[in-house]
Design a protein that fits this description.
The protein contains three helices and eleven strands; from the N terminus they run E-E-H-E-H-E-E-E-H-E-E-E-E-E. By secondary structure, the protein is of the alpha+beta class. The strands form three sheets. Strands 4, 5, 6, 7, 8, 9 and 11 form a seven-stranded mixed β-sheet that branches. Strand 7 and strand 8 form a beta hairpin. The N and C termini lie far apart (61 Å). The N terminus is likely disordered.
Length: 177
């Protein structure tokens, strides 16, 4: 069987009243077959795209720190205008969020978290104490690195990313237990 047979129209047998059993080609069965083949090709393309996105090369630790310095400077100059954070991603798992001096989330990609207080969270408390730096914490079954900087008005902007996406590891990070 040719690998291209799935695109061709198939022979079907129709037996109209008083008719013969002669095979005839139907347009409907051919279109359905072509549609199924196209769906398979599209699905394969999506899987290849998703797989390629998940296997990006690691992000250099120095790049993360430099990008966070730039974000911090921008936020301090623009009085905490978080438009620059919207849609900001790093690798497959990295995202940026911000909270004020009281630990209340001022920006998060999951908008439902905005306005929630994380004042009692050990990582947030430590970031507010340190103002700038890097923490390492085991979250959601993975080691995660949190690079944080001042965001203006006493707030903090933080990048959280899975450690296995970072080239250079968590050198210089404080480990939270």
């Amino acid at each position: 069987m040719s690998p291209y047979n799935y695109i061709t129209m198939h022979d079907t047998t129709h037996t109209p009243t008083g008719g013969t059993d002669a095979p005839s080609r139907t347009r409907e069965s051919g279109l359905i077959t072509v549609f199924r083949a196209a769906s398979c090709i599209i699905l394969a393309a999506v899987l290849v795209f998703e797989t390629s996105c998940l296997h990006k090369s690691p992000i250099r630790r120095e790049t993360l720190h430099r990008d966070m310095d730039a974000l911090s400077t921008s936020l301090e100059r623009n009085s905490g205008n978080f438009a620059a954070l919207k849609g900001r991603r790093f690798g497959a798992t990295g995202y940026v969020y911000a909270f004020d001096r009281d630990g209340v989330v001022t920006y998060h990609p999951q908008s439902a978290l905005a306005g929630m207080s994380f004042e009692g969270n050990p990582a947030v408390r430590r970031m507010l104490e340190m103002k700038s730096g890097c923490l390492l914490q085991h979250l959601e079954g993975r080691d995660r690195m949190m690079v944080f900087r001042p965001a203006g008005n006493g707030g903090i902007v933080c990048l959280t990313i899975a450690l296995d996406e970072v080239d250079g590891g968590a050198t210089g990070c404080v480990e939270l237990k």
